[in-house]
Design goal:
466 residues; alpha/beta; Rossmann fold; GMP Synthetase, Chain A, domain 3; 3 domains; 14-stranded mixed sheet; 12 helices; 26 strands; 27% strand; globular
């Protein structure tokens, strides 16, 4: 087959705006933009030879690696739609996504074992042409599955216009790292914050992404110090790890940004005490990208900051909604989530009428009825998190209130039950406590809230009677 020149693509300016000898990223070594373009070009030629072009659907299921990023960019330069699958997913989860989405091509690689570093350079992969594959849904260039923290994942499409608009919001966000500044990126590179706020923002702004050797506190700090990183991007579990450790100061650090889920106040406080700066929030969804942030004051949780430039939001009956042109859900209209140009986030928020600042108040689906009485499961979680031996807590409801609690070995069902009894009305106290060293999380480090998945992954089942 003759290799044709790749068609123009929506991100050409991202890949082509920096000089060949400018540093793109730092992993095992510094990688230049010249090398990036060369690797992407070679891989794009290989994809073209396989018949991948405009309107093709290409699924990537690879471990975090430069190869993964090269393949994503190469597929986009060919005009293809890219679907990102987390390689840490189970075989069942991967098969389910492939059956739902039916990509025409699958580029896959086995997880690197043992993991030599967080982001490896090269991984060998295979390219499979799938007989049942379907061409791309018009307008969408990126397909992602939601975290699945509350049940079966949703399949979400992002248009090139949506991604470029999100990059504009990041570029306009005060405090966001710019050209030449180094960012230690701990977020998954296939999920929204790591992909758009990290990898793509780096291409757009010239900020250089740095990857740690391993996800240990000492390795993270060592990588940040060696690179003289001005910022660290991560999720709450990363900052909890750093807040518990004592690996020494980071004199170049001016910004720490947490995304993915609400940061516990205890982690925010301990991190500030240890490193001398607060953790700043970035709030968004897979469907929309970044919605609100505050990278200047580093406000105390649960403050989320102001809506970012160009984001139209509304609070209806206490729940945050976001304006979008069309439903982001593929193969399902999800009428429970998208209606007449507004996306329901299912996040309860307060909005200051003067400043516009959003404050998080929990999930809209966290209020349940127990014996005819309303219980906010978020309140129960926050009460558990105040216990000195509790690090993490997830509270769910299935006829009775159940609490999954991560903490140290001093924690007992009787002790945690007594703690709740002294602080909560009896009908709010969990009837079941499941104790372990940590609560179950999905592949992206986000706390799981689906009851069935929690039960399967829970380590210890201990019942408390009242």
């Amino acid at each position: 087959m003759t290799v044709v020149d790749p068609p123009s693509w929506w991100g050409e300016r991202l890949l082509g705006r920096w000089h060949d000898d400018d540093v793109w990223t730092l992993a095992d070594r510094a990688v230049s933009y010249g090398e990036l373009r060369e690797r992407v070009g070679l891989l794009a030629a290989g994809l073209a030879a396989e018949g991948i072009g405009r309107g093709s659907t290409v699924a990537l299921c690879m471990p975090p690696s430069l190869t993964l990023l090269h393949a994503m960019l190469a597929a986009w330069t060919r005009g293809a739609q890219v679907m990102l699958i987390d390689v840490r997913s189970t075989a069942f989860e991967i098969d389910r996504l492939l059956r739902i989405c039916e990509p025409q091509f699958l580029l896959s690689a086995q997880p690197v074992s043992p993991m030599t570093r967080y982001l490896v350079e090269d991984v060998p992969f295979t390219l499979e042409r799938r007989a049942t594959g379907r061409p791309a849904v018009p307008e969408f260039c990126l397909v992602q599955a939601s975290s699945g923290s509350t049940g079966e994942p949703k399949v979400i499409g992002r248009s090139s216009a949506s991604l470029l608009a999100e990059l504009d919001r990041y570029a306009a966000l005060e405090g966001m790292p710019g050209a030449g500044e180094r960012v230690l990126l701990l977020n998954s590179v296939i999920h929204t914050m790591g992909l758009v706020g990290g990898v793509l923002h780096g291409l757009n702004s010239g900020a250089q992404m740095v990857y740690p050797s391993r996800m240990r506190a000492e390795s993270i700090v060592e990588s940040a110090r060696a690179a003289e990183a001005g910022a660290i991007f991560g999720v709450p579990v990363h900052f909890a790890l750093l807040a518990r450790s004592a690996p020494g100061p980071l004199p170049s650090l001016r910004l720490a940004v947490s995304a993915g889920e609400l940061l516990p106040l205890r982690v925010w406080t301990r991190f500030q005490e240890r490193y001398g700066l607060p953790i700043s929030p970035v709030y968004g969804t897979t469907e929309t990208g970044i919605i609100a942030a505050d990278l200047v004051t580093g406000p105390e949780p649960p403050v989320l900051g102001r809506p970012t430039a160009g984001m139209e939001v509304d609070v209806v009956a206490g729940e945050l909604r976001v304006r979008t042109e069309r439903t982001p859900y593929l193969w399902s209209d999800r009428a429970d989530r998208f209606d007449d140009g507004w996306l329901r986030t299912f996040d309860r928020c307060d909005r200051d009428p003067v400043s516009g600042v959003l404050r998080y108040r929990g999930r809209a689906d966290s209020v349940v009825a127990v014996g005819g009485l309303k219980v906010d499961l978020t309140e129960v979680e926050q009460t558990l998190l105040l216990h000195p031996h509790v690090r993490e807590a997830v509270v769910v409801f299935d006829g009775v209130i159940e609490a999954y609690v991560g903490g140290d070995t001093a924690l007992t069902p009787a002790g945690i039950s007594e703690w709740c009894r002294s602080r909560l009305a009896d009908f709010k106290i969990p009837k079941v406590f499941r104790l372990s060293a940590s609560v179950p999380r999905n592949a992206n480090g986000k706390v799981i809230r689906d009851r069935d998945t929690l039960r399967m992954q829970g380590e210890t089942d201990a019942h408390a009677h009242h």
